[in-house]
Amino acid sequence: MALPELKQTATEARLATMEFPNAGCTRAAREAAVARVRKMGLPDRRDEYWKYTRPDTLVQPVAPEAAVFEHDEAMMFSTFDRLKIVFVDGIFDPEVSDDLSLEGVEIDRLEDICCTDIHWAKDLYGVLEERGQSPVQRPLAALNTAFAADGVAIHVTGKPSKPISLIYVHKDTASDATLHHVVRVETGAEVTILENGPAASRFNKCMEIDIADGGKLHHIRAQGRDHERRAVTHMFARLGTESVFKSFTLTVNGVLTRNECVIELTGDDAVAHVAGACVGDGDFLHDDTVFVTHDAVNCESRQVFKKVLRNGATGVFQGKILVKAGAQKTDGYQISQSLLLDDDSQFLAKPELEIYADDVACSHGSTSGAIDETALFYLRSRGVPHSEAIDLLTLAFLAEAVEEIEDEALAEDIVARLEAWLKRRS
Amino acid sequence: MLDIKNLHVKLEDEEKQILKGVDLKVGAGEVHAIMGPNGSGKSTLSYVLSGRDGYEVTDGSAHLDDQDLLDLEPEERATAGLFLAFQYPVEIPGVGNMTFLRTAVNAQRKARGEEELSAADFLKIVRERAKSLKINADMLKRPVNVGFSGGEKKRNEILQMAMLEPKMCILDETDSGLDVDAMKLVSEGVNALRDEGRSFLVITHYQRLLDHIKPDVVHIMANGRIVKSGGPELALEVEHNGYADILAEVG
């Protein structure tokens, strides 16, 4: 079916600005992705999947400018021993990155892979993204596969001694970055991947994650207070038997953030948790769109999303659990909650369950609420000042999401950062 | 210490007068009890004194020493030395009891210009005071009042009182929902805090609590006013004869 004219025009206008990089062994995948983009068209506000979040600024040919956010805070995760991989405005910076060698993992730059004809990443690049295009289309992910200028391929074969830390630095007010990472966790291997930083004025990032039987991946991401940045990110994860994928994202401000997470449980007894804590203040929209497919027996999935919104901020949650026929003994859980600190802020939620197996336990819930006045008075009656009491109750509200982080030190780091951010009130 | 004059209070959003001229003076080191039938305004008095929203003072005054309570925010009243032990202590999921206690203690110290307690000093004090109230380490770790039994919640109130060291303590039906042993434990906790600089206003339905916490003065409240005051024998009279006689007597 032909695309509506407006959509086709917008899509072609965007494609015209994109530069097809030196593709090497990813060429076929990239060309196929361009064809997918042309077929689907880039999203516009008439698309059901973009009903709550206007994609215009993510699609328009030139990225809106975004001032570089000045702050005096230490870099996130800076107290942790980690392997740093730094991208400045979407381009790998070897000067400030660590040496990419670490026992138990092989890391290659996408640019290097694109200079070769044979690489393991060839079998993953664009593959999970393409699988994730059904039943819901994600054209911006296909656009990413087609034109990603940089990224890394992480092949985890053992248990590396420290986390791999992807750091995204924003320096250019007009930067428009497209990064694509592929991660393969081999049987029994285990890794922690950290991500932080605004990356660019406009950031399109895609991460494809393939976890083999018994593999484990922990992912912790912090999207900071950089007010003017825009980001659309996709995570596509495929889980083998008894594998574990746990992802947590902290988001504070940013004029527009859409984080999509597409998880496929393809092996029995696999576990996938995806969680997010978000604090939005003012002209801010944060969208978590999650799609979990159960296609194996006895798997567990959890979606835990908490958003604190004030001064007119908007939070969006679109979460779905799809249980395919035969995915018996599925244990699916989904909760999305917002704490609205004033009447101007809004939370838009679309929780969905679609179940074709008959022996499953799936629960979902979604709430919007204000600060509990009784609890607030209780705290104040003990001498805790109003603003401090609000912060305490706000942190308490976010706690269920933060508790999804298994590593205690990282969880404490996230809580400390949250506390500091809440205190600043900006 | 506490000086309430001609206090008139109505509900903020309806024309319902609840307190209709309460006069009450509690001297330093004294224990006063307030008894009265349901709906007489006892709990309202405790909420208005501690600054809860939803009430409007239409006349009268309330001072704690030389401070005008009605002019202060709830946290300022607490810092000034007022403490309300809640009839229904509030559950706060996600906030650890210990964090709550330390935040409150240090917030008050900070407001008074005192140095905040270090984590180690605080821990030492809280452990010691929790022990005498039979509050175990687990209760200190759990979220505030979440999953606590009725007795545990009330003991937790007394622990907060012990940590905050207020000068004016209001106990709003602290005996409700307590079994005999728990009531004894809570009363012992309160009695341990009695001294010449600290006063208590004990709101209760039952004389039994006053066997444990011996009052200097007993007030009977009815229809938004204090209608009769007397010694501890007044509580016994209520226990035996109910309120009918007293109410008839005062018209």
Shape of chain A: globular
Judging by the overall fold, what is the CATH architecture of chain B? 3-Layer(aba) Sandwich
For the largest beta-sheet of chain B, the strand count, sense and barrel status come to: 6 strands, mixed
Number of strand elements of chain A: 19
The termini of chain B sit apart by 30 Å
CATH topology of chain B: Rossmann fold
In this structure, how is the largest beta sheet of chain A organized?
10 strands, mixed
Unreliable sequence segments of chain A: none
Strand order, sheet with most strands of chain B? 6-9-10-3-11-12
Report the C-alpha radius of gyration of chain A, rounded.
21 Å
Task: Provide the helix percentage of chain B.
Answer: 40-55%
Q: Round the mean pLDDT of chain B to the nearest integer and report it.
A: 91
- Computed structural class of chain B: alpha/beta
Could you give the topology of this structure?
The complex is a heterodimer of chains A (426) and B (251).
Chain A: H1 5-17, H2 27-40, H3 56-59, E1 83-88, E2 91-92, E3 105-109, H4 110-113, H5 127-131, H6 139-147, E4 152-156, E5 164-169, E6 176-185, E7 190-196, E8 202-211, E9 216-223, E10 230-239, E11 244-252, E12 256-265, E13 271-281, E14 285-294, E15 300-310, E16 314-323, E17 331-340, E18 346-355, E19 361-369, H7 373-381, H8 386-402, H9 408-424
Parallel strand pairs in A: 1-5, 4-6, 5-7, 6-8, 7-9, 8-10, 9-11, 10-12, 11-13, 12-14, 13-15, 14-16, 15-17, 16-18, 17-19
Antiparallel strand pairs in A: 1-2, 3-4
Helix pairs in contact in A: 2-6, 7-8, 8-9
Chain B: E1 2-11, E2 17-26, E3 31-35, H1 42-50, E4 55-64, E5 67-68, H2 74-80, E6 82-85, E7 92-96, H3 97-111, H4 119-132, H5 137-141, E8 143-144, H6 150-164, E9 168-172, H7 180-193, E10 199-203, H8 207-212, E11 217-222, E12 225-230, H9 233-241, H10 244-250
Parallel strand pairs in B: 3-10, 3-11, 6-9, 9-10
Antiparallel strand pairs in B: 1-2, 1-4, 4-5, 7-8, 11-12
Helix pairs in contact in B: 2-3, 4-6, 6-7
